[in-house]
Amino acid sequence: MSIKFNLNSISRDNSQTKYAEADTLVFLLCQECKDYLGNLNLPANISQAMNLYIEKYPEIFDVADKHCFTIVDAGRIVNLIIVGCGKGKECKPNNFRKAAGVAARALNTVEAKSACLLAPVISKATRAHYLNAIVEGLLLGAYSYDKYKSDAKEPKACDLTIVNGVDDSLKVIEEAKVVAESVIFTRNLCNTPGNDLNPVGMELAARKVAEETGMEIEVLGPKEMQELGMNALLAVAQGSKAEPRLIVLKYNGAGDAPYNAYVGKGITFDSGGISIKPSDGMEEMKDDMTGAGDVLGAMRAIALLKKQCNMLGILSCAENMPGGNAQRPGDIVKSASGKTIEVLNTDAEGRMVLADAVWYAGHLGAQKVIDIATLTGAVIIALGTETSGIVGNNDELVAQIIQAGKLAGENYWQLPSLPECKKAIKGDVGDLKNSAGRAGGVITGGLFIGAFVKEGLPWAHIDIGGTSTATSTDGFIVKGCTGFGTMTLIKLAGEI
User: Fold this and answer.
1) pLDDT tens digits, 376-392
2) Contact by Cβ (8 Å): 465, 377
């Protein structure tokens, strides 16, 4: 059973009544915070217990290190949960985001019904970014996916009051809730199995978001794709009974300003096609639409937050199956841009659906294009499972993505767009080949997509092949689809 928070805000000076009502107190502490515990207006015996516990367990400040114990206060039992946030320079918002995720699951374990969260770092009026991270961490850390559990129950409700001195704290909390709920939207979408979510299902999800937020939506089916010459996208989809969809959400929050585009890979299941994947681990390929999920979740938040920007969210959706009509290795297809593609490997399908989609972004007038995709396994070899790779043609745009990632607690690393890698994707009998082999696979995959971006447009490709799914729960990341990238895209909107 999971937990659902009803979040409130209160100042330190008005907190005593809440302390008296709470069955649980949560402390998020960095080492420098211990000298400020006396300023939290705590009951004397709780303050004394905290100081004794900290003295006994100095490791308590290690990031995401959790300690739970109970004390008796005024004749009642009170749970105390302490989660470390680091020492010195470690005490950054993302470590509070991680600690809050740990605290959320601890609150679920103790079955808290009424709780107070205290973190000296948010006692200052200017620490909105810390409060924002804590709220995001709480909601994301409490996430669970039990849609298909026959014994699933409604989440337990917990009234959680955050003691803080941040200016306009309720607005900060509400905006953080929108961001976290949009990441959860992405997680739910990407955790859905392929038998319940195909490209038409992605269309339905997008239409629901458009209706919820008032965004415009355009949906291209096979007929419209054929008219536009989107044969790369169609080639990937032709082995499946499920029709492809190219979905465009349009958000206008800045009047006549130019539009920028987020473009997401939406392969709702990837068997590899004729170049079929090994059976071991293939069940994970339901998440190959995470890029599109990220874009849809981000567009939802951008619209609900009424960000001052103009954005296009493009979801390029297909199912890659080895049916009797599937594309074959050796096929040559002509993309919407007019460039021809040699299909050397049908499992290099994501870059093909994105080729037509990034072209369409330029066709619609986008001035900057960012695509995001579970594109390669090579990115795991290069960067592991905590960092996503970026390939682009504009260093300023790449730097903006990396900075937005820091605010979101998501790590990125830019890879070089080497001329040798561009040569590697040149075709022998067509213009480009969709696979250049293992060497520099993250780079060549990205550069292939970049070849279809309208000339002169700033562009960046984000490869989330290693970060889209977690094999264990840690901090605000919960096992399963992570929604990695959604928060970055939200925080980036309006900054590019």
Assistant:
1) 999 999 999 999 999 99
2) yes
The first and second tokens of residue 199, run together, are: 């490209």
Question: Distance between CA atoms of 266 and 189, rounded to whole angstroms?
Answer: 11
DSSP-assigned states of every residue in 181-229 = HHHHHHHHHHHS-TTT--HHHHHHHHHHHHHHHT-EEEEE-HHHHHHHT
Q: In 303-364, at which residue ranges do the beta strands (DSSP E only) sit?
A: 310-320, 332-334, 340-342
Residue 423 exposure: Cα atoms within 13 Å on the Cβ side: 3
Q: How many helices (H) and strands (E) does the chain have?
A: 15, 19
Average pLDDT over residues 36-54: 85
- Each residue's pLDDT tens digit, 394-442: 999 999 999 999 999 999 999 999 888 899 999 999 999 999 988 999 9
The set of residues, in sequence order, having a beta carbon less than 8 Å from that of 445 and lying 6+ positions away, is 348, 350, 351, 375, 376, 378, 461, 463
Distance CA 443, CA 433 (A): 14
Catalytic residues: 277, 351
In terms of Cβ atoms closer than 10 Å to its own Cβ (0-12, 13-18, 19+), residue 488 is buried
DSSP state of 350: H
DSSP character string of 84-127: E--SGGG-SHHHHHHHHHHHHHHHHHTT-SEEEEE-GGGGSTT-
**What's the CA gap between 261 and 318, in Å, rounded?**
20
> What's the DSSP call for residue 474?
B
Name 204's Cβ contacts closer than 8 Å, sequence gap at least 6. none
Element (H, E) at 491: helix 486-492
For the chain, first and last CA: distance in Å? 41
* Per-residue CA distances from 190 to 355, 401, 486, 487 (Å): 22, 22, 12, 15
Q: What is the pTM of this model?
A: 0.97
| Spatial distance between the Cα atoms of 297 and 461, rounded to a whole number of angstroms | 18
Q: What share of the chain is helix, strand, coil (3-state, %, to 5)?
A: 40, 25, 35
pLDDT above 70 (res 492): yes
User: Distance between CA 20 and CA 42 in Å, rounded?
Assistant: 10
Q: What is the DSSP letter of 151?
A: T
Q: Alpha-carbon torsion 237, 238, 244, 248, what sign?
A: positive
* Strands 459-463 and 432-433, bridge-based pairing: unpaired
Residues 6+ apart with CB under 8 A from 189: 197, 205, 289, 293, 296, 297
Burial label for 305, CB within 10 Å (0-12, 13-18, 19+), is middle
Q: How far apart are CA 185 and CA 164, in angstroms?
A: 28
- Quick check: 224 and 331 in contact, CB under 8 A? no
